[in-house]
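Morning - adenosine monophosphate inputs below, output right after.
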Amino acid sequence: MEISRTIGEARELISQFKSSGQTIALVPTMGALHKGHLSLIRQAKKRADHVIVSIFVNPEQFGPNEDFDTYPRELEDDLEKCRLEGVSLVFAPDRDAVYDEEKFLSINIDSLNQHMCGGSRPGFFEGVLLIVNKLFNIIQPDVAFFGQKDIQQFQIISIMVREFNHNIELVMAPVERANDGLALSSRNSYLSVDERTTAPGLYRALQFIEKQVKGGVHTPKLLIEHQKSELEAKGFRIDYLDMFSFKTLQPVYTLQENKKYIIAGAVWLGKTRLIDNILIEL
Ligand code: AMP
């Protein structure tokens, strides 16, 4: 397995892969790799000759009061995991290798980041698009893998690919969960033992809403409000919990047949922000 710390090194290797006609799958990550990331890598391996994993805690997608400084960084462990999965190249640049001292451009997003995580984390998706756009240009993969856990991210990146004409196929991989249903996340390491026991409550609330909606409730507002109160009673602080159109990422109040919806929530448990979602088609 090769490890590149600079764009130049990565490009040299990638051009070798490409000159012999081999295909490339990219799995972008911020490291602290868990089974969710590994499932993306395994799916990527089936789709291309080479899997490239990027590991970069992207400062541009963290707000001033967010956890950029404390975000887990476990590069040696991550490299070992990638090696065991048969990854061809890990691209793990420093900040300076990716960003210039001054930044003159940014990518604007219209209505797609008004709600969900976009609504509560100003600048977050602009930062995500900036780094993903860079990674797509640096690596020029044939296919890139993202997790459904960050479903708004997947949708916004899909639209960037379309509108900016990146010639890259995107794949959305299902959410990997712990046995008790908690979506795996690098941030789960922040949870205390008690919080970890409470944490699967978010997924259970989403599942409850899913069951009711599939059972015929097509105006889920009251149902959702009730689930919010239940979560608050368990010690969660609600950032958002709602149903959104998969296509527009806008909240929906009356559901229609033959449409895709996201039941999505973000909650705080102590200092840890957890997100999760279920995608349903009526
Ligand atoms: P991150 O390192 O958190 O930025 O995540 C890197 C990629 O892994 C993103 O596409 C995430 O959506 C995906 N991912 C994170 N957690 C999971 C999970 N539990 N199951 C599947 N994919 C995940």
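Note: The two ends are 44 Å apart (CA to CA).

O.
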